[in-house]
Amino acid sequence: MKLIYTHENGFLVNNVKNIIESHSIDVVLKNEFSSGAVGEVSAFDAWMELWVINDNELERALEIISAMQSRAGDPDWFCQQCAEQNDASFDICWRCQSEHAVSES
Known about the structure:
With about 100 residues, this protein is of the alpha+beta class. Helices cover about 25% and strands about 20% of the residues.
């Protein structure tokens, strides 16, 4: 097992977990319930961690995370099917599950 992502915000760690799992990569969360130990352990030691189970999938998982982070500053997009606003990190509309149609320049 290899550590692929950690953050103080559990919501972000769970979001990365969901994205990685959507690519059929098995992962496990660690320190999911350790926030209550802050004070007894360092705050950094209590951050949630995401670990890839199969070391052979490490590179692919890190590429997915890198691609996701590179889109962090991109603008939101509107679904062509239902007109719902979606965050730039979504490749599929959260409302109707239609794929994001990227216009070619």
